[in-house]
């Protein structure tokens, strides 16, 4: 469906990952071997927390309906800023129209959210799911995607207090409504959520056959594995990236996030927790 990347660590020039990596996100937009679609050219988005802002401050976003490989503004911005936490997404539209308000990541206050996947038969369940959004949050839904509806459902169910529990409740609601409408496998996806301090990356589908998701091994370990890799000098010891597919071909640099799991990246490092929805 789509490809995405999320980074957390020392402030970094986003272009290092989004543009310059061996198999960067922009390169994945043209050639995505592990994706459901090889080409992801239906727009993109980039959201970042400025390096000079307080932790958990308001992020900035940039969205475009241009293909990521053809947008000069993306190149300018990702080389001009430095950020300790940023999210980027290239889109392959399944059904909703190609417009800026449908490009990820989505933002609410200090939160960013993005999704690779779909809510199956969304036109059948859209009304019920939309009506389940808190009325105070509903005016903030600007686009027409299932992903943005899911984000606002998670906000409704307490994302700002407990992102893991809130997304589980939101997915439970989607699966319940889907079952009422005869949808066999309502949810497919990998999801990224951040408040500017912590990054949560989820891998879950109703069917148990979720799109690919990986995160990098910690940098000190990588330096021991590849002492001659000059590119590692660009990263601090706390740098971690979560990706739809690996950014390079070096063995052992990325590990797959298991099915029904949330990877949590925070100031203490990274850890995996079971993501039990039912």
UniProtKB/TrEMBL annotation:
Sequence intervals crossing the membrane: none
Domain annotation Glutamine amidotransferase type-2: ranges: 2-278
Key word Amino-acid biosynthesis present: no
Alphabetical list of InterPro entries matching this protein: EgtC-like, Gamma-glu_amide_hydrolase, GATase_2_dom, Ntn_hydrolases_N
This protein's UniProt keywords: Glutamine amidotransferase
Pfam families in the record: GATase_4 (PF13230)
PANTHER family attached to this UniProt entry: GLUTAMINE AMIDOTRANSFERASE DUG3-RELATED (PTHR43187)
UniProt-recorded name of the protein: Class II glutamine amidotransferase
Species this chain originates from: Microbacterium awajiense
């Amino acid at each position: 469906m789509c490809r995405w990347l999320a980074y957390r660590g020392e402030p970094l020039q986003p272009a290092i990952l989004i543009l310059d990596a061996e198999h960067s996100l922009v390169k994945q937009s043209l050639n995505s071997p592990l994706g459901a679609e090889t080409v992801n050219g239906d727009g993109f988005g980039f959201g970042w927390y400025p390096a000079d802002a307080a932790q958990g401050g308001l992020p900035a976003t940039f969205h475009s309906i241009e293909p990521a490989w053809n947008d000069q503004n993306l190149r300018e911005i990702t080389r001009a800023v430095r950020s300790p936490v940023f999210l980027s997404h290239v889109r392959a539209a399944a059904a909703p129209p190609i417009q800026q308000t449908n490009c990820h990541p989505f933002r609410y206050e200090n939160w960013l959210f993005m999704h690779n996947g779909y809510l199956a038969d969304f036109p059948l369940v859209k009304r019920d799911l939309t009506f389940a959004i808190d009325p105070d949050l509903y005016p903030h839904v600007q686009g027409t995607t299932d992903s943005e509806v899911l984000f606002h459902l998670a906000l409704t169910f307490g994302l700002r207090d407990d992102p893991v529990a809130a997304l589980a409740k939101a997915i439970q609601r989607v699966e319940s409504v889907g079952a009422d409408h005869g949808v066999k496998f309502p949810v497919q996806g990998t999801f990224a959520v951040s408040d500017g301090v912590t990054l949560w990356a989820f891998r879950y589908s109703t069917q148990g056959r979720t799109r690919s998701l990986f995160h990098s091994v910690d940098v000190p370990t990588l330096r021991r594995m590849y002492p001659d890799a000059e590119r590692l000098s660009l990263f601090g010891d706390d740098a971690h990236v979560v990706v739809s597919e690996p950014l390079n071909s070096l063995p052992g640099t990325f590990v797959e996030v298991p099915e029904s799991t949330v990877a949590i990246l925070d100031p203490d490092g990274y850890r995996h927790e079971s993501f039990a929805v039912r």
